[in-house]
Amino acid sequence: MRLLLVGVLGCSLVLYVQAMYSASDDVVELTVSNFNREVIQSDSLWLIEFYAPWCGHCQSLAPDWKKAATALKGIVKVGAVDADQHKSLGGQYGVRGFPTIKIFGGNKNKPEEYQGGRSSQAIVDGAMNALRSLVKDRLSGKSGSSGSSGKQQSGGSKQDVVELTNDNFDRLVLDSGDVWMVEFFAPWCGHCKNLEPEWAAAASAVKEQTKGKVHLGAVDATVHQDLSSRYGVRGFPTIKIFRKGEEPEDYQGGRSRGDIISRALDLFSDNSAPPELLEIVSEDVLKKTCEDSQLCIIGVLPHILDTGAAGRNGYLEVMAKMADKYKKKMWGWLWIEAGAQMELEASLGIGGFGYPAMAAINSRKMKFALLRGSFSESGIHEFLRELSVGRGSTATLGGGVMPKINTVEPWDGNDGQLPVEEDYDLSDIDLDDDFEKDEL
Questions:
Q1: Per-residue pLDDT reduced to its tens digit, 17-55
Q2: Residue 423 has pLDDT above 70, yes or no
Q3: Positions marked active-site
Q4: CA–CA separation, 122 vs 221, rounded Å?
Q5: Which residue in 168, 198, 267, 281 has a CA-CA distance of 20 to 30 Å to 134?
Q6: Alpha carbons 116 and 123: distance in angstroms, whole number
Q7: Given the DSSP bridges, would you call strands 249-250 and 238-242 parallel, antiparallel or unpaired?
């Protein structure tokens, strides 16, 4: 009986976690299949929460999210995406922690990050501020969010899809060091017409998120028959992946923009170099790295006199391996020598002991988390894995601002040198006279 009761309670808990929002709530459940229709093609302003059912913070947010949705009903749309189930949507919009809230306003292809509080009142206030901005932009003619225009409906620009021909294909694709996803289509093909807005939206997102390192192209196979024949195209649309020095690969994924973007980001990660591991030698290094990345990972390494060059290089090698392992996240990676940036250490609560140490900083939220485990591949992996799924303990960066950074000389790669003590010649000092004056 006891086991049965435990089983029933366990099942009830699972059902509660998975059924975070229901049809009776005013929160719209969004999925891969309805996101484009409900959000991208909509004239409405949307507040959308990307959550995971197991996330404690998401469970805490749910009552306030429902309350805000009811208050905003008929004014602002409030939705939720189970990003654990619909990973492609989370990947498409750069979601790397839970819950993440984004505002889809005039430009649905570039949602804004919601930075407000998590109470129902704060959410409503944030929504109304965003709505006022949207209306103001429409009055000034800056924004047109109507879903009826071709560009807005696709959520992207056809200009970001590269038109490939017999004349430019080899130069742009085969001779390039970048990755290409190429669609071979026929203008009369119904499936190709259905794919067109998804391909255009994906092209715009991929161009931005990979900084132009992965391209989406299109070949009209009815015009450029030599190309379609060369690559054995026998049906439309056919999508192939081209990487320098490799045979083209057939794309086997889904045809939604989320699926295409997810595959493109995987290709970008597989073919990109790991992020550079930089020493913080000036304020510019810290500022640029942290502002350009969602998270910047900072290692605080022991003084060179404590480890020597070999010991320091060992720590840097561990960090470099983890930077490569997590390169798809596009985080920034930095390091400092203990004692070189005392204000930074103090703001992270490190200072004076426990080296090597590591912290992850979100400069937009002014939050940080500290490595509590070992400074090893397994310890750092566990730390970063927890952060990547929205777990782990965080705190506010000291003072809520980035600390002052000293300009220091970069490490020269050598062992440290003890300071040279100056020798004194005591032969010219008459110690006897001095001692005589001090006698009692």
A1: 345 888 788 999 998 878 888 888 888 999 999 999 888
A2: no
A3: 55, 58, 189, 192
A4: 53
A5: 198
A6: 7
A7: antiparallel
